[in-house]
Write a structure and sequence with these properties.
The chain has about 250 residues and is mostly beta strands. It has a domain of about 180 residues: Umud Fragment, subunit A. It has three helices and 13 strands; from the N terminus they run H-H-E-E-E-E-E-E-E-E-E-E-E-H-E-E. The longest helix is centred in the N-terminal third of the chain and has 22 residues.
């Protein structure tokens, strides 16, 4: 027996089965030109990976931030100053003598090999370099002697090529006593001539600096770059209103 009153059947979705009248082909219902949407976590992961790669590239080749932990460069740099170092100051450098470490960044490099040279380090430049006696540490000092210069210190006065160095504007000497050079080279030293590809460096705090007077020269390929800007300065002493040295932020390093 047949059903005399069959249930009505609705028309099928024309977008899914009807021919496309404009092209003569059937439409599938999905936009064939679109790509699957990325998950939110994947987008975040890709953005973070790109940010890390950019940060490491900039740190390795362009500019690197450092914090001043000691007073060897007073009055030019104070404890708590945060500085930027231009790693392109003397040319495009490729990291060398690298080794993997369990830290961030995961690679530590102990040399900088010039790929394209710009300017040579000059007397008066404030540089960051690998400490010759422990290359895990970075030191910051001022260049006093370049290759070929003759350096002598007599009763705290620094002589470069026989002429006194006029350094009163950026140095301090806090100990009025003078030490015999046969006991300690702090106040009486040399003369000696700076060899090729080497630099004689000193801290601006002359009486309280461990520098070339004690451990020798800085080799050219151990220089990381030239310090050029104080971007933050933290005192952390006295009233809370004086914890930040606002007057030092943005100050150039000369």
């Amino acid at each position: 027996m047949t059903d005399s009153n069959p249930a009505p059947v609705s028309d099928p979705d024309p977008a899914s089965t009807n021919p496309d009248t404009s092209t003569g082909r059937a439409s599938s219902g999905a936009d064939e030109g679109t790509t699957p949407k990325k998950s939110l976590w994947r987008e975040y992961a890709e953005a973070m990976l790109i940010a890390v790669i950019l940060a490491l590239t900039i740190r390795a080749f362009v500019v690197q931030a450092f914090k001043i932990p000691s007073g060897s460069m007073i009055p030019s740099l104070l404890i708590g100053d945060h500085i930027l170092v231009n790693k392109l100051a003397y040319g495009l450098q490729l990291p060398g003598e690298c080794e993997w470490t369990i830290s961030f960044p995961p690679v530590t490099c102990y040399a900088s090999n010039p790929l394209i040279a710009f300017d040579a380090p000059e007397r008066g430049d404030v540089i960051v370099f690998r400490y010759p006696e422990d290359e895990q540490k970075d030191f910051i000092k001022r260049i006093i002697g370049v290759p070929g210069d003759t350096i002598r210190i007599e009763n705290k006065v620094v002589y470069v090529n026989g002429a006194p160095l006029h350094d009163a504007a950026f140095t301090q000497r806090v100990d009025p006593g003078v030490i015999d050079g046969r006991i300690n080279p702090r106040d009486n030293f040399g003369p000696l001539t700076v060899p090729d590809d080497s630099y004689f460096v000193m801290g601006d705090n002359r009486d309280q600096s461990l520098d070339s007077r004690f451990w020798g020269y800085v080799q050219r390929h151990k220089i990381k770059g030239r310090a050029f800007l104080i971007y933050w300065s933290w005192n952390g002493r006295g009233p809370w209103t004086e914890w930040v040295r606002w007057n030092r932020i943005g100050k150039g390093i000369e």
